[in-house]
Structure formats: structure tokens, C-alpha cells
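Re-run with default settings, no changes from the original entry. Doing this only to confirm the output is reproducible before filing.
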Amino acid sequence: MAKIAFIGLGNMGSGMCANLCEAGHEVRAFDLNMDAVQAAADKGAIGAFSLKDAVQGAEVVVSMLPAGKHVLAVYFGKDGVVEHANKGILLIDCSTIAVDDAREAAKQAEAAGFPMVDAPVSGGTAAADAGTLTFMAGGPDMAFARAEPILKAMGKNIFHAGGSGNGQAAKIANNMLLGISMI
């Protein structure tokens, strides 16, 4: 089992984090909302009080954040993940963000010595809680191979869409098709 830092314990992230704990992973959970951190701890995670605390000893970082600016700040900003994590650990961002932001994050991660996968989700909060999400992942083959077992603990359908940013492109196409079918 992996040592995972989970960042972002909102409506989606809380269920995803709980499923990683249930699968037997050691999860250090962080969010700016300390009530969310406590709720994650109540479901088996170790509560973290900072990004530095969350990534200490982690082999994988999983994030679920509101927007690209948050992803870039959490990973690459002052006191961010890259500043405090051991080189070479796997970064998996499950946020739904712009393709360009995902590609910029992957570029910065690679330059800093970290493999990164963008893996936005489909399925909503019920699927996040049930561990039945669909992941559309983008990133290098070797990074995806490392990410897949972690994603399987949170979802039932995992697709590798190709290079960095392609998970986000697949998610946008999925959302567009859903919108068309609803119309």
C-alpha cells in the first residue's frame, strides 16, 4: 500500500480520500478547512495541518481542487508540494481545470523532477463516495502506470487519454457530449 498525501477535501475529495483509506493506503489529508481535515481523520486518514505536513514521507500526492490557479499554487507556489516533497514522487491532480493549466503543471512538475498525471473525474459526489468514479487521465505512460492502482481505489473506469492535458481534454469533450444529449 502507498503513502498518499491527499489535498482538497471538498464535496468530491472527501469521498475519494475515504476510499483510499478504505483500500488500505496510509493517507495524510490536508485542506484549508480544518473541519474537513477532521472529517477525513474520522474516516481513517491522518490529519495534516499544512502542505509540508501532508507530503512528508508521501510516495504519491492526489489533489482535488477548485481551479487551475489553485493547482498551480498548491504544487508550485511558495511552501507548495514541490518545495517539500521528495523528488520523484507521483503527482496526480484530479481537479477539472483548463487543458493549458494541466499542461503547464505537468511541464513545471517534469522540470522539478516529478512525474504528473492529470486525472479529472466524472460521476459526481455519489460516485466519489461509492468509489465508482470514472477517471480520464493524461500523462506519460510510466506515470499513468504508477497512477492506475491509486485511481482504481477511487473509481471503476480508468482511461488513459494520452499525453499531459489530454485527461482534461477528454473531460471537456465528455461534458460537451453530456450537454448536447441533455439538450
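The chain has nine helices and nine strands. The chain has a mean pLDDT of 97.
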